[in-house]
Amino acid sequence: MSTTSSKVPTVALNDGHTIPQLGFGVFQVPPDTTARAVSTALEAGYRHIDTAEMYGNERGVGEAVRASGLDRSDVYITSKLNNGYHRPDDARKAFAQTLSELGTDYVDLFLIHWPLPTLYGGDFVSTWETLAAFKQDGRARSIGVSNFQVEHLKRLQSATEIVPAVNQIELHPYLLNDEVRSYGEANGIATEAWSPIAKGRVLGDPVVTKIAERLGRTPAQVVLRWHIQRGSIVFPKSTTPARIEENFDLFDFELADDDIAKIASLDKGETGRTGPNPDTFAMIPG
Ligand SMILES: NC(=O)c1ccc[n+]([C@@H]2O[C@H](COP(=O)([O-])OP(=O)(O)OC[C@H]3O[C@@H](n4cnc5c(N)ncnc54)[C@H](OP(=O)(O)O)[C@@H]3O)[C@@H](O)[C@H]2O)c1
Fold first, then answer.
1. What is the band of 14 on the pLDDT scale with cuts at 50, 70, 90?
2. Rounded distance from Cα 252 to ligand 1 centre (Å)
3. What is the pTM of this model?
4. Which of 59, 74, 132, 222 is deepest in the core (most CB within 10 A)?
């Protein structure tokens, strides 16, 4: 089966590929319920799934994609290299394992999950060159990074010719992460916004709830629509079927510029982070 044309816009990447701007994230979705959640998302119309080796649920993602009857080429799949495998030999083995878990012969996008600047002698360049080989042999259609700060992106730029297609960073109304986002914009690196609704924390904010009430939408829809209009790629996570549908229903309303600015003014800078700071994060899952 092939997909009918989707309401979801695509974003053009710097390597000639495109990515659906809205997807479905599976961080903290337990392995044994992942296939069910992803199946619900595919039925709702999502065609972009964001997983990672670290999430331990790539197998469930692959199962759901196969069970959907959709062509593999109709579903955009991203995965990410786990923190313990930055050395080139380990990265090659880990990537082969990712393909095996997903049960596919390619991923659409493969990312270095975290830069880990305090580990591996600060060397993420050789890891990046290893991902470049996956792109060259066709097993990763696009390659990118996640949680890279401007300094890390500059290092890749000075050491290699290959510009990441995306940088997946924490970004939501409480953490605009504007320095990293602007650097990406200026250098052809698309920004993916992780924890787009700040894991739910931003949904009770009076600025958001007021706009939602006025427009007759939910707070989650308002915040996700805000990302879409600012050009970021998003993949909210939910295991609640009604929310999975709600988060996909973003394409029949618009926010005014004034509302977009009001939501952006909620930025709390560093204190708005829900996750670790990439400059110091050094966790290797056991
Ligand atoms: N690269 C990285 O380092 C990194 C880090 C974190 C996340 N990510 C990616 O980004 C994706 C999204 O981030 P996230 O999972 O951290 O957080 P998120 O999508 O901002 O929020 C998920 C939380 O919000 C709730 N929720 C979802 N939709 C809702 C709605 N319409 N109304 C009310 N509550 C709602 C979910 O609850 P229920 O599930 O109970 O419905 C869940 O608790 C991840 O799944 C992952 O793919 C990447």
1. very high
2. 22
3. 0.98
4. 222
